[in-house]
Amino acid sequence: MSKKLTVSNTEITILSINDKDFISLTDMLKAKDGDFFISDWLRNRNTVEFLGVWEQIYNPDFNYGEFAIIKTSAGLHNYKISVKEWVEKTNAIGLKASAGRYGGTFAYKDIAFEFGMWISPQFKIYLIKEFDRLKEEETNRLGWDIKRNLAKINYHVHTGAVAKNLIPPELTAKQRNFVYADEADLLNMALFGITAKQWRNRNPELKGNIRDYANVSQLVCLSNLESLNAVYINEGISQEERLIRLNTVAISQMNTLIKSEPAKIITKPVL
Questions:
Q1: Of residues 263 and 40, which shows the higher confidence score?
Q2: What are phi and psi of 184, to 5 degrees?
Q3: What distance in Å separates the CA atoms of residue 258 and residue 254, rounded to the nearest whole number?
């Protein structure tokens, strides 16, 4: 799996390897002024010492003997070593040279940040900033996915109550689907103040459905409404009364969840 960052007008690939982020040094090198190679950075004594310390901390299989030999030669005028040689000789894990679709040299984030300093201090700072922004977006997205999945799970509880109490056995499949859709729209009206069809008509350029564009607070509330509606259905409460109750709960919960922001849902639902 790959992701992209843009730093100083340079697009940089990030690969996920064993749940670890490895940043493309090959892409980063394009931002450095002049004709340079990654091996130029790797021959630097300070670089070798940094890599050695990093490997000693994170890599129990690091070859200290080979590292000592490399460290002795690092910095000498005629000394040069490639990433592939570094990995093969020391059994390093922080750098990876790969071929294929995502070919090039990749480094674990700590090492990539150090490489960014070699390009320029400004580049390193912007790289860290963009990387942190990406991780924050991923965290927020994960929270949204969890809430979306929770809503889907609770929807099975909801449809189970609909099937048990609102769908006579003699209905056709098309008629049953209409009942399910009608109850789904009851929840949409209670929370969003709009039916699925109305949302599609107003947003023809968007793919998916209204729930795909809900925020985390709305998904939490939706999950709660699905459970409540299942209870109300089992209790035999009419759809009109259920809509009023669910909308009241939605307003209360959304005001609590978003705190200072007004809840963007209807206050007087209409069937």
A1: 40
A2: -65, -40
A3: 6
Contact between 94 and 58 under an 8 Å Cβ cutoff? The reply is yes
Question: How many CA atoms lie within 13 Å of 126's alpha carbon, on the beta-carbon side?
Answer: 15
Cβ count near 123 (within 10 Å)? 20
- Classify the C-alpha dihedral 37-39-43-48 as positive or negative: positive
Return the half-sphere exposure (C-beta side, CA atoms, 13 A cut-off) of residue 69.
Answer: 9
User: Can you tell me the distance from the alpha carbon of 79 to that of 254, in angstroms, rounded to the nearest whole number?
Assistant: 65
Q: Where are the beta strands (DSSP E) in the chain?
A: 2-7, 10-17, 20-24, 95-98, 104-108
Evaluate whether 196 touches 209 at the Cβ level (below 8 Å). Answer: yes
d(CA 22, CA 106): 6
Predicted TM-score (pTM) of this structure:
0.53
Q: Which residues are CB-contacts of 146 (< 8 A; sequence separation ≥ 6)? A: none
- Helix (H, G, I), strand (E, B), or coil: what is residue 104? strand
DSSP-derived 3-state class of residue 5: strand
Residue 76 scores a pLDDT above 90: no
> If we measure between CA atoms, which residue out of 198, 191, 197, 201 comes closest to residue 266?
191
What is the biggest distance separating any 2 CA atoms in the chain, rounded to whole angstroms? 88
CA 239 to chain centre: 38
pLDDT > 70: what percent of the chain? 82
From residue 206, give the alpha-carbon distance in Å to each of 62, 147, 209.
51, 21, 8
Averaged over 184-192, what is the pLDDT? 89
DSSP 23-59: EEHHHHHTTSSSS--HHHHHTSHHHHHHHHHHHHHH-
In the chain, the amino acid numbered 154 is N
